[in-house]
Design goal:
Number of strands: 8
Shape: flat
Strand order of the largest sheet: 5-6-7-8
Largest sheet: 4 strands, antiparallel
Helix content: 25-40%
């Protein structure tokens, strides 16, 4: 055998054994160490960093789950933790489920004779019936007419969201994009610009609701509330009046004030939760 053929055979044999060793190392890394060994199953350093960063986000998310839900969701928005390991309290999930329910209605007709000409006209209308509501698919607006009593566990967490009812699986899928960008908010709120005057307007609005309108594009002076100066009585009255409001509370005002002085742009994230359709969550 020529010497070159001998070395080629040795090289081929060594290559085969090296390939086997690499495959074994990759399997060991994948099955035992979760793909974190250098040059193992994960290989690219960017993938290892990605797994490490996700582990940090998951740990942060678990810690945030110990906070009240509206604080939990808002902090995730401001810090970039997003939906990592997101869990909501059982009472909040029950209230979200109830907010998807629609009261049954029946169709009724009433004939009325109209003047002049004694023309008989039939009016059709819906009448709510008694009994429990039923979850329905579609957009849910807890601020709308007839839903003013929606608890703050809904209005101060997700607010408006979309529900998808799966009767076969007996579940409701709740989806939302958590952010503070809508037709009722000031666009500067999420700009990441330092705006102390607007932050103060939010704090002042706790006792002087007119101050809150300074940050918005609403310039209608007819419906603008009266300006109120600071004094303990005004603060006490404001706190009492906002107790039942679905949207207005000192906590949300302080949160907005924080956003106006923060130079970090908040990061929107998706909420996607599936809950039982009929029973209370324990």
């Amino acid at each position: 055998m020529p010497l070159s053929g001998f070395f080629s055979g040795i090289k081929r044999f060594a290559g085969e054994k090296l390939s086997e060793a690499q495959r074994g190392y990759g399997q060991l890394d994948k099955n035992v160490f979760g793909g974190v060994l250098p040059g193992g199953a994960a290989s690219p350093l960017s993938e290892v960093k990605g797994r490490f960063n996700q582990a940090r986000l998951d740990a942060a998310g678990s810690a945030l789950n110990t906070l009240p839900d509206r604080v939990n969701l808002f902090t995730r928005y401001m810090t970039g933790v997003g939906n990592s390991n997101l869990q909501l309290d059982e009472s909040t999930l029950n209230d979200l489920r109830r907010s998807t329910e629609k009261t049954p209605v029946i169709q009724q007709e009433k004939k009325v004779t109209m003047l002049p000409g004694n023309v008989e006209t039939t009016f059709k209308f819906e009448v709510p019936t008694y009994g429990p509501g039923f979850p329905e698919s579609g957009p849910v607006n807890p601020y709308g007419i007839g839903t003013a009593s929606a608890p703050k566990s809904v209005t101060n967490t997700l607010g408006r969201f979309n529900a998808t009812v799966d009767a076969r699986a007996n579940t409701i899928r709740i989806q939302d994009k958590y952010d503070m960008v809508n037709e009722s908010e000031d666009p500067d709120l999420v700009s990441g610009k330092f705006q102390p005057q607007k932050a103060w307007n939010e704090i002042e609005s706790i006792w002087n609701p007119a101050a809150g309108l300074r940050n918005l594009s609403i310039k209608n002076k007819i419906f603008a509330p009266e300006e109120k100066q600071y004094n303990p009585k005004n603060v006490q009255k404001a706190l009492s009046a906002t107790g039942e409001s679905p949207t207005y509370s000192p906590a949300t005002r302080f949160a907005r004030a924080l956003m106006y002085v923060s130079t970090v742009k908040p990061k929107a994230y998706d909420v996607n939760i599936t809950i039982p359709m009929e029973r209370e969550i324990q």
